[in-house]
Design brief:
The complex is a heterodimer of chains A (112) and B (114). Chain A has 112 residues and is mostly beta strands. Chain A has strands at residues 5-7, 10-13, 19-24, 31-38, 42-50, 53-57, 64-68, 74-78, 87-94, 102-103, 107-111. Helix content of chain A is 0%, strand content 54%. In chain B, strands 2, 5, 6, 10, 11 and 12 form a six-stranded mixed sheet that branches. Chain B has a four-stranded antiparallel sheet with strand order 3-9-8-7, with no helix packed on it. The relative contact order of chain B is 0.33. Chain B has strands at 3-5, 10-14, 19-21, 24-26, 32-38, 44-50, 56-58, 64-68, 73-78, 87-94, 103-104, 108-113. The chains are: A mainly beta (112), B mainly beta (114).
Chain lengths: 112, 114
């Protein structure tokens, strides 16, 4: 079974631009969660989508948004990028609630 | 509110020695607890999970953790460290109410000395 895939793996953007990250969950998984990982703040929950609906949301500004498609693939969008948005963005998929979350390799975003 | 505290951001052990990584949690209701491992430039891999069944949980690669409600702890142990265990370890907590919104600790970097 293929694991969680994230594209692109590396991304360099300029302040003020916007970016879209993609996540393909494990086949059959309907829940997709997104996390931001930085050296200073650690792993922070962004949001979770389940069956195309946002089910949980962390404490991030509205510049961070996401969506999920009918095939469970998910995208995360960050608008008006700031230097502090530089981070590893991790996507995780799971079968249901409180089930194991399987993480992808992440997308390393650098904002210059 | 849920939170996780991992005592010791860096732990060094000799190869073959006991590994003990500490995790204390805060939760107002019975928690679900997880340990993940992260190797450089990779995502997180689940080591083990506690979901209110047996308090001693066995995971992959010889790791295990014991849920102690009275101490609000979920420490990770491995009897004998191997060089390949060198990585970053994260403890996470969740509750049924918040579902897949995991709260992670700040991580413990494990170094194994040959």
């Amino acid at each position: 079974k293929a694991g969680v895939t994230q594209t692109p793996r590396y991304l360099i953007k300029t302040r003020g631009q916007q970016v879209t990250l993609s996540c393909s969950p494990i086949s059959g998984h309907r829940s997709v969660s997104w996390y931001q990982q930085t050296p200073g703040q650690g792993l922070q929950f962004l949001f979770e989508y389940f069956s195309e609906t946002q089910r949980n949301k962390g404490n991030f500004p509205g510049r961070f948004s996401g969506r999920q498609f009918s095939n469970s693939r998910s995208e995360m969008n960050v608008s008006t990028l700031e230097l502090g948005d530089s981070a590893l963005y991790l996507c995780a998929s799971s079968l249901g609630t409180i089930a194991e979350q399987y993480f992808g390799p992440g997308t390393r975003l650098t904002v210059t | 509110a849920q939170s996780v505290t991992q005592l010791g951001s860096h732990v060094s052990v000799s190869e073959g020695a006991l590994v003990l990584l500490r995790c204390n949690y805060s939760s107002s209701v019975p928690p679900y607890l997880f340990w993940y491992v992260q190797y450089p430039n990779q995502g997180l891999q689940l080591l083990l999970k506690y979901t209110s069944a047996a308090t001693l949980v066995k995971g992959i690669n010889g790791f295990e953790a014991e849920f102690k409600k009275s101490e609000t702890s979920f420490h990770l142990t491995k009897p004998s460290a191997h060089m390949s265990d060198a990585a970053e370890y994260f403890c996470a907590v969740s509750e049924l109410r918040t579902g897949n919104q995991f709260y992670f600790g700040t991580g413990t970097s494990l170094t194994v000395i040959p």
